[in-house]
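Aim 2 progress update. The chain analyzed this quarter is reproduced below.
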Amino acid sequence: MSERRSLPVPDGLAGERADAGLARLLGLSRTKAAAVIAAGDATMDGVRLDPSTRLVPGAWLEVTPPPPPAAPSVRAEPVPGLRVVHDDADIVVVDKPVGVAAHPSPGWTGPTVVGGLAAAGYTVATSGAAERQGVVHRLDVGTSGLMVVAKSERAYADLKRQFRDRTVEKVYHAVVQGRLDPLRGTIDAPIDRHPTQDHRFAVVAGGRPSVTHYATLEAFPAASLVEVHLETGRTHQIRVHLAAMRHPCVGDLTYGADPSLARRLGLHRQWLHAVRLELDHPADGRRAVFVSPYPDDLATALARLRDA
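Predicted structure tokens:
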């Protein structure tokens, strides 16, 4: 059971709905905040809250937040299609197939990169939370491509610094619906969790700063192949930014893609692949470059667009 907390309503939440305000105060999703309210575990100046109650600045909230979920554990199991691109004493670079998560998380019971590496006998750095030791960046389950995992503690610290300082170059290719106008550009729009749908993210005022650079490589009647460079690394960033421009990744039904186009191309996931990864090797500082070819499903879909 979590401890009951007492806290004042800050001026910045004046007039905010209780469910939205509690979500921001407690770092919860709006759905979980609403569940706390529905359970009678939140009051304002002694009066039970309703989700639509407007918060009053200076009023006192009494809240019993939900207990944190138990941390999932790493399960060593072979991952078909997980290809090791590079391996040395400090890092291992893998080509992650679609349908594989970077590490265990609540609600995910499928294969993971760290579980696949463990099953293959790789030992990774112990830095980081138990379920994601050695992991310095992630790819979505539905996104394939290159990912680096730290094997030594010095590599973990150095790679975390590189990602923080934005000296790691992450390059993706995506096939998006329609033709982007302009053909190349920068999307600078803040991203946060979707206000009403926990499984999605969205461009939200006051969200975390997010910058995506793109350039069209090929244009087809119904879609475009684009190269994407990430300046920041927010969850679902490419998918959210392209969807905000009304050019979602083909096959990305979560962010509004046309399912009929995906069916015509034989796609069962978003057309998005991490094709190149550049970083300074933690051992000697030399620039290391890794590349990944398109997997079969994406290559076939692209060939169908070209043939059409």
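The mean pLDDT is 92. The two ends are 59 Å apart (CA to CA). These observations will guide the mutagenesis experiments scheduled for the next reporting period.
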